[in-house]
């Protein structure tokens, strides 16, 4: 595969393989292990033998690394008991490596709508474990998040993205706490039309998230562009302050925001744009 090809169009396994050094990819709990969700088949849903979560060990620029990639094509990249446990355990093991003097890097490819509704509380518990594991690991090494498209990153996993040390997005990416259909269902189509693609991307797309300072890097859709951004983020090391440590700054601005008016991209940029400046 040419390294200047689309990163967005790749499946999770190929994303992980190409982010690691050539020949270093080694998958943990791969499809031949036959690990599936115990809850989907009972509901008549076809299972997948890795539960849509790819965990790969290898090296990045010669250093030990783990790349965890969510398969957005399976159940919308939703997080269930098994897939969530795979991600949390991989992050926990990376933290343990660092404590034992093995400086293991971590990259998360996030294509997820959040919790898997069919697994409800079990999925939510797994996401909480992922949050705790990211916070633990990021003390030792930068945790790099990549949101490329086309699923985006929503729900509890958008919190996982915010907890990352460094976020990389494409223009095609979307990032938000609630997905467009959820907002439309709760607030009504007049408030949020989930079929209005220009509007959706103007509110939650990668470009506006970057211009608002909510993510660190905006890249074009290409394997080389994403790899270079990941390498640059790793080279920067652990930030002096993670964005979630600066919660008071965000709370102050949100508390002063006029929620009686329909928000737009310019308001979002003005609200948080100081972080980019």
From TrEMBL:
InterPro entries: AcCoA_carboxyl_beta, ClpP/crotonase-like_dom_sf, COA_CT_N, Malonate_beta
Alphabetical list of Gene3D superfamilies matching this protein: 2-enoyl-CoA Hydratase, Chain A, domain 1 (3.90.226.10)
Record GO biological process: carbohydrate metabolic process; fatty acid biosynthetic process; malonyl-CoA biosynthetic process
Domain CoA carboxyltransferase N-terminal: 1-242
GO molecular function, one term: carboxy-lyase activity
Keywords: Transferase
NCBIfam families reported for this sequence: malonate_beta (TIGR03133), PRK07189.1 (NF005530)
Protein name, as recorded: Biotin-independent malonate decarboxylase subunit beta
Organism: Buttiauxella izardii
Higher taxonomy: Bacteria, Pseudomonadati, Pseudomonadota, Gammaproteobacteria, Enterobacterales
């Amino acid at each position: 595969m040419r390294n200047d090809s689309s990163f967005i169009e790749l499946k999770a396994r190929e994303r992980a393989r190409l982010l690691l050094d050539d020949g270093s990819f080694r998958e943990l709990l791969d499809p031949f292990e036959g690990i599936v969700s115990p809850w989907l088949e009972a509901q008549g849903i076809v299972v997948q033998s890795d539960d849509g979560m790819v965990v790969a060990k290898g090296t990045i620029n010669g250093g030990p690394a783990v790349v965890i990639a969510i398969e957005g094509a399976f159940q919308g990249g939703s997080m269930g008991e098994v897939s969530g446990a795979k991600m949390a355990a991989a992050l926990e093991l990376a933290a343990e490596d660092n404590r034992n003097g093995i400086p293991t890097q971590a990259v998360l490819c996030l294509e997820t709508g959040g919790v898997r509704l069919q697994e409800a509380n079990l999925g939510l518990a797994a996401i909480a474990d992922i949050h705790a594991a990211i916070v633990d690991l990021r003390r030792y090494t930068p945790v790099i998040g990549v949101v490329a498209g086309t699923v985006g990153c929503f729900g509890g996993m958008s919190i996982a993205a915010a907890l990352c040390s460094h976020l990389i997005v494409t223009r095609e990416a979307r990032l938000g706490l609630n997905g467009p259909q959820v907002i439309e269902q709760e607030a009504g189509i007049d408030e949020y039309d989930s079929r209005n693609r220009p509007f959706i991307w103007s509110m939650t797309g990668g470009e506006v998230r970057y211009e608002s300072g909510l993510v660190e890097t905006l890249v074009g859709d290409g394997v080389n562009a994403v790899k270079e951004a990941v390498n640059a983020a790793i080279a920067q090391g652990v930030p002096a302050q993670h964005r979630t440590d600066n919660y008071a700054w965000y709370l102050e601005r949100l508390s002063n925001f006029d929620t009686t008016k329909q928000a737009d991209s310019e308001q979002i940029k003005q609200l948080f744009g100081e972080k980019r400046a």
